[in-house]
DNA sequence: ATGACTGTTGGTAACAGA
């Protein structure tokens, strides 16, 4: 059957609800992975999303982070976090998984890393390695899609200017190697088509007119296992325009 | 124009994001 899957770092679900709800009505995704919901436990807008036709599963912690999965095709076997998930020092709300109509879906928000010499960078690498380990048994159980803000640009073509990122996080060899290790576990990188220009960027800094100059990055990724047939995928950069947007655009993936 | 950051909080400045 056909299924439409989306992933979007909304940079505060409460602030973005006026953008998310009409977008859901226009785009009609069956499953939506959200990151940076920034919702406190108990403050998730379950009722508003139910009224829009979606069941919710959320992993919330308050001021930072927060991930969720929305579904209108059922949502069962919800797991928050994963086995041996590292923390800083305690595990944060960065991963949630659920089964939606036979598909195992993960929504992840990888630690930023800040700078390569920061303890947050080591945390990021250990988190990615542990995610890879946690995905191995999931892959054995059936088709899996891992969606989210990976906070790593897979190649130099995935940043607007590689020279501008010299010495910065998101582009280092160890980060890219961590992505390669996840792919090697049994995934394909579903590269979405950009709506405009050659670069499939998903994030543009709010500052200095970065968006209108198309100075972006591809750091939101969709990893699909064998058994998941992707018909098409695109970045909805229209959702990055207008009043009070997130700094990330959603990725929409049509599966069959 | 899609426009020059935006989100959070025992807040009103500080920090995080990437």
Automatic annotation (TrEMBL):
Kindly give the SUPFAM superfamilies that the UniProt entry links to this protein.
Answer: DNase I-like
Q: Which GO terms describe its biological process?
A: DNA repair
The protein's site described by Transition state stabilizer is found at 151
- Coiled-coil annotation reads none
Q: Which residues form the Endonuclease/exonuclease/phosphatase domain?
A: 6-248
Q: In the UniProt entry, which residues are flagged as the active site?
A: 109, 149, 248
Which metal ions or organic cofactors does this protein require, according to UniProt? Mg(2+); Mn(2+)
Binding of Mg(2+), residues = 9, 36, 149, 151, 247-248
Per UniProt, what is one GO molecular function of this protein? Answer: metal ion binding
Task: List the Gene3D superfamilies.
Answer: Endonuclease/exonuclease/phosphatase
The family line of this record is: Belongs to the DNA repair enzymes AP/ExoA family.
Q: What is this protein called?
A: Exodeoxyribonuclease III
What species does this protein belong to?
A: Phytohabitans rumicis
């Amino acid at each position: 059957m056909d299924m439409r899957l989306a992933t979007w770092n909304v940079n505060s679900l409460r602030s973005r609800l006026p953008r998310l709800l009409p977008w859901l009505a226009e785009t009609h995704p069956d499953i939506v992975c959200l990151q940076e919901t920034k919702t406190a436990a108990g403050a998730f807008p379950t009722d508003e999303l139910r009224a829009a036709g979606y069941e919710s599963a959320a992993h919330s912690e308050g001021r930072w982070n927060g991930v969720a999965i929305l579904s209108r095709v059922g949502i069962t076997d919800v797991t928050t976090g994963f086995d041996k998930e590292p923390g800083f020092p305690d595990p944060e709300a960065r991963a949630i998984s659920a089964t939606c109509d036979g598909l195992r879906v993960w929504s992840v928000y990888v630690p930023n890393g800040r700078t390569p010499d920061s303890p947050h960078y080591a945390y990021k690498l250990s988190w990615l390695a542990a995610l890879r380990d946690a995905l191995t048994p999931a892959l054995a159980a059936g088709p899996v899609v891992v969606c989210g803000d990976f906070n790593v640009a897979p190649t130099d073509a995935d940043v607007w200017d590689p020279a501008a990122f010299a010495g910065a996080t998101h582009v280092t060899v160890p980060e890219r190697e961590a992505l390669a290790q996840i792919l090697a576990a049994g995934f394909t990188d579903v590269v979405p088509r950009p709506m405009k220009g050659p670069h499939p960027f998903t994030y543009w800094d709010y500052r200095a007119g970065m968006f209108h100059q198309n100075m972006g990055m591809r750091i939101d990724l969709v990893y699909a296992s064998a058994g998941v047939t992707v018909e098409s995928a695109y970045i909805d950069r229209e959702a990055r325009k207008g009043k009070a947007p997130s700094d990330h655009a959603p990725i929409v993936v049509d599966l069959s």
